[in-house]
């Protein structure tokens, strides 16, 4: 006698799980983008490192690298136009005069046009 009750319960659960046909969440995919500056890879690095960031709209971006005393080391992008998506730039560990930067701690700074500002720490090591 318990077997028919079990079938009814199973059918109820299966029928209940499909009762919300509409999509849940934002319908506009552009709303998914937000400003973000991700940790570089590799970190620490010896020769080159990749810096990845996301911009939520078409905008101009400045990406700079400073030493731990906030002295400018390198400008990777200055007021460069970016479409809304995720972007990557490679830093070769050199300053604006193409001299190899010393081992140590550096700061990556991302500026947007809104203004938006984000910072991450990078560690450079040499062999």
Description:
With 127 residues, the protein is mainly beta. It has a single domain, classed as Immunoglobulin-like (Sandwich). It is 13% helix and 41% strand. A 4-stranded antiparallel β-sheet has the order 4-3-6-7, with no helix packed on it. Strands 1-2-5 form a 3-stranded antiparallel β-sheet, with no helix packed on it. It is globular. The protein starts with a helix and ends with a strand. 13% of the residues are buried.
Secondary structure elements and their pairing?
Layout: H1 2-17, E1 36-37, E2 49-55, E3 59-67, E4 72-82, E5 85-91, E6 104-111, E7 117-124
Antiparallel strand pairs: 1-2, 2-5, 3-4, 3-6, 6-7
Structural features:
127 residues, mainly beta, Immunoglobulin-like, 4-stranded antiparallel sheet, 3-stranded antiparallel sheet, 13% helix
